[in-house]
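User: Please work through this fold.
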Amino acid sequence: MTKGQVIKSIREATGMSLEELSFEICSPSTLSKIENDLQQVEWSRFERLIEKMGEDPRKYIFAMNKAEERAIQLEYDVAELLENGKYAKASELLVEMEDIKNLDDSSKQFITYARLHIDYSLERIDVQTATEGLEEILEPHLTRMAKNKGKLGNIFLTKNDIRFFIFLAYCYSKVDERKNISTLRQLKDYIFQRATDKAGFVLQYTAICANLSGSLGLAGDIEEALEIAEEGIKWCHRYESLSAYGQLLYNKACCLLLLDGATPEVKRLFQTVIHLLELRNTRESREMSRKAYEFAINNGLEL
């Protein structure tokens, strides 16, 4: 089965028209040519079309050539390593990925993003350099948002686009908290309202909930921060994802301590949070564990 046949089969099964699927990705005539194998489709466009129909592109790796398949697998592996703070191994895989010939634009953008993520996390570059690099990657989307008063509107985002925006929001949080919160709110609403494959977005959605609840808590919006943290925790349970679980529990514990005081329930929650973060054993989780302990002590909770 060719990539074009895969796209056509899913589109017809979902009942989407050529115009609906091609919107913001290519012209209807181009999509028709792709579906009928009259025009080749690169991975980045194939990925966007498949994700727009609510499917996971990884299910259709059989339609890729060997180089595309290896690049895709490396991309997913690197993304997972970044989520877990394994920067040395991620850097090794990026070198292998860069050696693959004829990488498409999507893979090149991912490599740039991953390098920025690693370099900023290891304090090799400052927040301004990271922000400028991410804004360059997302320039087409940001330009359209600027024309729409800073709103995403009908812009279609892939999982990678959302991953890039999450990191950009994190960089914004260092210089402009309002811009950070606005970006995270829009990303959260986008996934909740428009993503048909909710399970496929669990890593991004829970990361957004963790970052947004943390930012709202720091801004003094404790009740909303608690609500969003609990929503993220529900997603972790529903889709069996632990990536952002420790941070979400930490945010919930801090909110409950501020709202309810040093109750036995809050104490147990803080003890669980610290234990989970220590088990994860990354630089970020160890730092968060230390902050959780200090926050508890400073707010009258003895651990």
User: Anything to note?
Assistant: Residues 126-298 form a domain with the Serine Threonine Protein Phosphatase 5, Tetratricopeptide repeat fold (CATH 1.25.40.10).
